[in-house]
C-alpha cells in the first residue's frame, strides 16, 4: 500500500484543478469523477473560509484566496512527496503509483516494454503516462503531474532540473527491402535530394531535425522531391513499404521492419542525423525508488 497518511487529498485536488484549468482535466489526471473533485474543493473552501475559484461557463480562475493557497500548495505537496519517498524507502516498499510523461515516439516504442517489465516485477504498481511533445512532458513534470519525464530536448533552465542522457537515436533514410539501394552502404546526397521522399508533418521532431541538417548543408527542404507528408512514423513506413517513395524515420521505430527485411536503412553520404533523449527530474524533489526502478528498466528497453 502506498504511504498516504500525510496527504490531504483535497489539497492535491485543488492544486490539480488550478494546474489543469478545469475540474474535468483534474478528474481525468487523478482518476476520479468530476463530482468527487467538486466535493473535495467545496470541503477545502469550507475549511479555509472562502471561495478558491471563480467559475463561469467558459473557464475557472483562482480567487485572491486561491492564489494565496496555490503559492503554498506546491511546497506542501513537495514535502508530502519527500516524506512518502523516505518512508517508502525505509520500509522497502516499491508499490504505489508511478507517473510518467514522455514523447510520442518513446510512448509507442519504448515505454510499453519498460512498463511490462515493471509490472512483471511488481504487480502492485499503478502506472499513468502523459504523452505529448518534449515541452508538454517537461510541463507535466513542472506542474507535478509526473514523477519523471523522458524527452528529446533537455530543459533550458538546468538549475531547476536534473537531466541525464537516456540514449541516442538516429533519423535514418529508409527504402523498401527490395529497392536497389537496400544493399548499398550509402547513397550520394544528390541522389537523396532527387528521390521521391515521404516526410513527417511540420512541427514533428523528426522533420525539425531534418530541416536543421539541411540548413547546415546550405540547402533546404525545398530542394527535396517531397511527394507526401504524413502524420506518424508508422504512416511513413507503410507508404515506403508500399512503394510510394523513400522516407526518413527514427531508427527506434524500425526494429520489426529491419528484422523482417520489409524495409532497409541506408546512410546518406555526409548526412547523419542524431538526436539525444533525456531522463529529466525536478532537482529539488527526492527520487522515489519506484522511479529509480523504472528508469533502470527503461534503459534496458533501449539497450
UniProtKB/TrEMBL annotation:
Single GO MF descriptor: transcription cis-regulatory region binding
Entry keyword annotation includes DNA-binding: yes
Domain of life: Bacteria
HTH lysR-type domain segment(s): 1-63
The keyword Hydrolase is assigned to this record: no
Pfam families: HTH_1, LysR_substrate
Gene3D superfamilies, alphabetized: 3.40.190.290, Winged helix-like DNA-binding domain superfamily/Winged helix DNA-binding domain
Cleavable signal peptide: none
Keywords tagged on the record: DNA-binding, Transcription, Transcription regulation
Sequence similarity: Belongs to the LysR transcriptional regulatory family.
Function, in words: Transcriptional regulator of the ttuABCDE tartrate utilization operon.
Protein name in the entry: HTH-type transcriptional regulator TtuA
Organism: Agrobacterium vitis
